[in-house]
Amino acid sequence: QVQLAESGGGLVQAGGSLRLSCVASGIIFRLFDMGWYRQAPGKQRELVAGITSGVSTNYADSVKGRFTISRDNAKNTVYLQMNSLKPEDTAVYYCNGRSTRSPREYWGQGTQVTVSS
Fold this sequence. Notes:
Elements: E1 3-7, E2 10-13, E3 18-25, E4 32-39, E5 46-51, E6 57-59, E7 67-72, E8 77-82, E9 91-99, E10 105-107, E11 111-116
Parallel strand pairs: 2-11
Antiparallel strand pairs: 1-3, 3-8, 4-5, 4-9, 5-6, 7-8, 9-10, 9-11
């Protein structure tokens, strides 16, 4: 059974930091491109950051220079380090995994991030 389990969300003041983690099980993690998405109330889900199986990264313009995505294939884990958080970063953050060998795609259950002003 495939599972993507996020953790690390919470309440933080503007300017603060959080690190999200997503532990994957049931997949060959090194063969998956991983990403973090977020969805704020009343808005569509959007890509925050992605990291390929080859460790190339991409970021939404709104988080460039503040967020860093990384992965540890030995731990089946992808991270999102979030610094200089702003109230507009408030959202539910979801972990996503896409196989590089098939159309399979998986989502985590989400973790709430709330940034107070």
